[in-house]
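Title: Prediction job returns without error message
Component: structure pipeline
Severity: low
Priority: P3
Assignee: unassigned

Description:
Job completed but the reporter wants confirmation the result is attached to the right record. Sequence as submitted:
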Amino acid sequence: MNIKIESPVNKYYVQTLCMIFFPGEKFGEREEEREDAPSLYLRTEKREECITATARMRLGDREAVAEKEALLIPQRTEERTMKIAVGAAILAVAGELVGYRPSWGMLIGVRPSKVATEMLNGGVSKTKVKKILTSDYLVIPKKAALAVDVALNEKRISGTSAPKDCSVYISIPFCPSRCTYCSFVSYTSKRLLDLIPEYLERLLVDIESNFRVISELGLNVKTVYIGGGTPTILSADQLRRLLSKVASLTDVSALAEYTLEAGRPDTITAEKFAIAREYGVTRVSVNPQTLCNEVLSGIGRSHTVEEFFRAYEVARESGIRTVNVDLIAGLPGDNFKVFSNSYDRILQLRPENITVHTFCVKRSAEVLRKNSQIYSIKGGDAGKCVDYSQIKAIQNGYLPYYMYRQKNTVGNYENVGFSLEGHEGLYNIYMMEELHSIFAAGAGAVTKLVDNTGNDTSGKSIERLFHHKYPYEYLGEDRTESFREAAIKFYTEHSLI
């Protein structure tokens, strides 16, 4: 897609808006050589009381033009006002040519409730926030209501994060098989699975190093999250080594939450969950994604529906306080009838926590090689499935407490966490809303240092420290001292110690 911009507006913002209507599209000057390539010309003008955006889009032999304006008001910055004008103009021309209105309007970020949170924190009423989201940001009413509900629930659950709070993330980036929509192809190969014993040894060193720095900084660990991949791909003995290491470094009984993302039902055993309970784990995930064997087979999951129910029963009998179950709306081969049946059966189990994701395709996923048209801007049945999950969750006593979006989701829909009261996934909120620092260990893990002492969430200072992405790269890195120095420098410079 060829884009020409005569405006100081952020180019990435423009490209991301275009990708809502043209998913998978690439951007560059040479795209204009393709006769079928969509093109966009965008211009903005600042006037005395407003910013005007003019957009002209061409698709094949058709063209659409729109001019939109946004008032300059004290309640928002000039940059945001420009984005509103630009967003309205692009949505108008692209919507006319493609015949699609995105549910989230011009909200393109990972956190669609962020704008609602900022307005609520600024004293704007719940009703007014909904109105602004629909009128200014062109969000459809039910999504505006969802954004406000999530923002209010997050605020109620998380409260005010203290400057000395932090969380710990531990990465186990291995899986027993590869889902066709996942991009981490090599993580399932035998060569990499054979690295698990060596990987665990290196990981234990990093975990100890992280807790040492946390102690040196005088921080309080609120939550620990062991994610993946599939952490329960570890043997029972390996899992015991990992959990006993954590227990030796912090008082796990004092944690607000301790999560083991079990994930694949075919890796779950009573012995592993008994070990998890013994070492203080309070939350586990058992994730079927769908309760249809044909769909499971089609997406490369190596377990059956029956194995999920067995694994769920193991989780219930373990005595671990909170069980989370994940489902995905819009999977290849799925439809509303199949999804709603899966969701109703999950609701009958009454897990404390349910997360509904929208199907998302990573760029290097196997499914793209088989079907390059897998992206769908309208999403087929996905929207109906997402709506159904949200209505039924609330009817059954669950509240939406956590929400985020990913690129290239079918229909541009969201991922929402629902919970019974008192069982919300705290780490998810802390991480997504950047309420405090996350110290991470393992391949692909990212430490996020956060200065949360400011009043304005958009004004936080954040620094990210990256581990190597792949296990074999991670085994060769030695960043223990550099990570320590970077963390101490950040906390010192921001007067947090």
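Comment from assignee: result matches the submitted record. Residues 197 and 427 are 27 Å apart (CA to CA).
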